[in-house]
Amino acid sequence: MNHHRSPALFRNALCVAAGAALFGIAGAAGASTFASAILDINNFRITHASGTIYRNTDFSKLVGVNDAHATAMLNNVFASTAATGTRPDVAHQCVGAPCPALGENNFTPFGTSLPAHGNFSYADQNFSGSGISMNGAPAGARSQTRADVATAYNKQFASSNSDVGSSNTMAFRLGSSDTMTVTFDATPYAMAYLSPEGRAITTANARISWSVNIVDLTTGLSVFTFAPNELNGLAAVSRTHGHTGMSLYNAAATTFHLTATSPLLLANRDYQITMQHNTLVSAQQQELPEPGTLALAFTGLAGIAGLRRKALRG
User: Which residues belong to any copy of the Ice-binding protein C-terminal domain (predicted)?
Assistant: First the structure.
């Protein structure tokens, strides 16, 4: 009997055995991720040094524009919309299933609980009101954004991102020199969660950012910036593989009352005030074989290598 085995035959056997060990004996580990970020800015007002609300008649020039966007992405499938206007309100976007049963303009946090496991990316935004009194109407703007993502895939790679934001810009010229004080209530919320089950490479991140900035349009220099830590550096949570569980920021949905005052702004000089408001979340999962499966694979490969050495000696 001819005991000689061709190298090609052993290469094929090696591939088949490795494939059986890696995929046929035990499936890849399961895992799930979730991230959520919500920011509610309410009763945003701009006041004089005297404490009275700015009115549109206090400006010799006043031109404003508000932009908003909501983008959801799951495994490179996108749902996105944008709006520009006095009070932009973009429709909520969702990719995947099951999408959270939130409804339009629902900015209530999940708290310390999790939604039903799913594979989705969700985004929503709303803006209403005005930071100054327009034609005698009461002042008080509200800007809200929400971003949620989840992955719960087995035996495959999953990536989900959600980006929601608004930009409110007003170019102006004051009739008389004065300061500007911004005052508002802010309720931020952020969650990042990784399931303790499974051994996948997983990440979950949630981040909020908010700022207001005044630029002197003559010099191009910023003369005032307010970016409170409660809505920026503190409002970021993350979890990575090896650190499963839940990270939360402001789980009790505490509302912060925030205020800041600009330096003196000169009359008849062109300025621009911009409020930037963003919530961003991401989650990723990449499955790995169970350690026992890897051990079985290496045992199988070692056995095949031994057979090959024996055959070559024969």
Answer: 289-310
* Structure tokens that stand for 220 in this block: 């191009």
HSE on the CB side for 14, CA within 13 Å?
15
| Contacts with 74 (C-beta within 8 Å, 6 or more apart), sequence order | 95, 96, 119, 120, 121, 149, 158, 159, 160
Q: What token pair was written down for 45?
A: 């007002």
Q: How confident is the model at residue 299 (pLDDT cuts 50, 70, 90)?
A: very low
Q: What is the pLDDT of residue 18?
A: 29
3-class DSSP state of 96: strand
Question: Residue 88 above 50 pLDDT?
Answer: yes
Contact 155, 231 (CB under 8 A): no
What is the four-CA torsion angle of 86, 89, 167, 263, rounded to 10 degrees? Answer: 60
The single-letter code of the amino acid at 146 is R
Phi (first) and psi of residue 265, to 5 degrees? -105, 130
pTM of the model: 0.81
As a whole number of angstroms, the distance between CA 198 and CA 162 comes to 24
